[in-house]
Amino acid sequence: DVSPQDLDMGQGFAFTPKLNGSDSLTGGEISYFTTTGGHGPPRDARISITLPANLASELQINNTTDVRLSHTLYNTSALFVQLSHAAEVVSRIIGSRIEGQQVKNLAQPVIINFVATKHLSPEEVK
Q1: What's the per-residue H, E or C state across 52-84?
Q2: Quick one: average pLDDT of 99-111?
Q3: Do 94 and 30 touch, CB atoms closer than 8 A?
Q4: Cβ distance 49 to 112 under 8 Å?
Q5: 90 CB neighbour count, 10 Å cutoff
Q6: Per-residue DSSP letter, 51
Q7: Can you tell me whether residue 22 is helix, strand or coil?
Q8: How many Cβ atoms from other residues are within 10 Å of residue 49's Cβ?
Q9: Which of 32, 77, 105, 119 has its CA 20 to 30 A from that of 93?
Q10: How far is CA 72 from CA 3, 16, 47, 84, in A?
């Protein structure tokens, strides 16, 4: 849980795998960060999500109680229904949620950075 004031600091979540090159989420490092002061995700993070600063203000969350902010990270798309055999997910999947809030049409973007978990040739990129 975060305070509305902390939510306005640009919250972020990142994952950095083990140094031995494993793709497993087990044993990797999870990082939480704020974007105030020029901070951001760790340079070696393989996937991250950054919520815009002033999000609580934009969503008009002005109460004094904490906000439930949750992040989800999937290592593969195995839990999702494939709508097309031509499409393939080649990265981890990440998301954030603010409980009780429908977040849309933000003035500033949510930023997602990721590194593909599978090498693709230029012909495979569509």
Answers
A1: CCCHHHHCCCCCCCCECEEEEEECCCCCCCCCC
A2: 92
A3: no
A4: yes
A5: 16
A6: P
A7: coil
A8: 21
A9: 105
A10: 20, 14, 12, 24
Whether the per-residue pLDDT at 95 is higher than 90: the answer is yes
Kind plus residue range of the DSSP H or E element containing 50: strand 47-50
Side chain identity at residue 76, one-letter code: T
Q: How far from the centroid of its chain's Cα atoms is residue 42's Cα?
A: 13
Q: In 3-state terms, what secondary structure has residue 29?
A: strand
Kindly report the three-state secondary structure assignment for every residue of 8-22.
CCCEEEEEECCCCCC
CB 101 within 8 A of CB 61: yes
pLDDT beyond 70 at 108: yes
Structure tokens at 78: 């195995």
**Both structure tokens of 82:** 């494939």
